């Protein structure tokens, strides 16, 4: 029994140490998610207004531009996948990867070639393990991304959309990231980044033949305006997606670590009950041995008196 009791005590010490670690990680994630939420809230209005400005320029002119014009035949697409550098975040990374794989399969079924760009070591490791081709990758900043990181990620995407497909360019760009809905809900989404969908035609008139006519004069030209807005639009959307992904990762980590802490507490209680039972059995056995020994000694003494 003594050996069994030592095993239980050793496991209790081990689980207690693990509980302290998971509790600390839960508190760290909780503090980081608040900061990430603030950054998301600060960056979203800029991205929204910039998208609205680009839409106004696109609908207010007849200029063909990769930012606003869909290719007649889309043969090559780029998919940007946002994951994290670290794990311990539940299904955060696996959900984003599944969404990217589903989108890739859909694009390939439509006869398109797909170039995959990945942010985060977890996504890169997943694709490398399966020996899948990666066009480009970045890591080391997923917990606290900056606008400079977004510019670095956006640069090859902008270069690819401006090239012809024959020269290695792409016709469209999709982004897969995890949207932060609340502390309990984070959803993996795929969104087409380029070309921009011009659903709002409020900035244009209509001719008798039903053609959209521009209502704006651009200086120096609409194409130059779109050229200037293209990098800012892509960078702002990528930055906002990086912040959404970071906030979602911290929330997922907090939830996973809270679950681990609660499970550790329950395990400690179970092991404590087993240790107490083993201790009681050991004490009972010791008492039985003492009583048995005392009885044997009494019998031996009575026999010698005769």
Short descriptors:
alpha/beta, 13% strand, 306 residues, 60% helix, 5 helices, two-stranded antiparallel ribbon, 5-stranded mixed β-sheet, 7 strands
Name the poorly predicted regions: 200-214
- Backbone CA Rg: 32 Å
Instruction: Identify the strand order in the major beta sheet.
Output: 3-2-1-4-5
Shape: elongated
Task: Outline the fold blueprint.
Layout (H helix, E strand, L loop, with lengths): L1 H58 L16 E7 L9 H18 L3 E7 L1 H9 L6 E3 L8 H16 L9 E9 L5 E9 L9 E3 L5 E3 L7 H84 L1
Parallel strand pairs: 1-2, 1-4, 2-3
Antiparallel strand pairs: 4-5, 6-7
Would you kindly provide a written description of the structure presented here, covering whatever features stand out?
It is a single chain. The chain is of the alpha/beta class. The chain has a 5-stranded mixed beta sheet, sandwiched between helices. 60% of the residues lie in helices and 13% in strands. Strand 4 (172-180) and strand 5 (186-194) form a beta hairpin. Helix 4 packs across helix 5 (222-305). The chain is built from 5 helices and 7 strands; from the N terminus they run H-E-H-E-H-E-H-E-E-E-E-H.
Summarize this, please?
The protein is α/β, with parallel strands linked by helices. Helix content is 60%, strand content 13%.
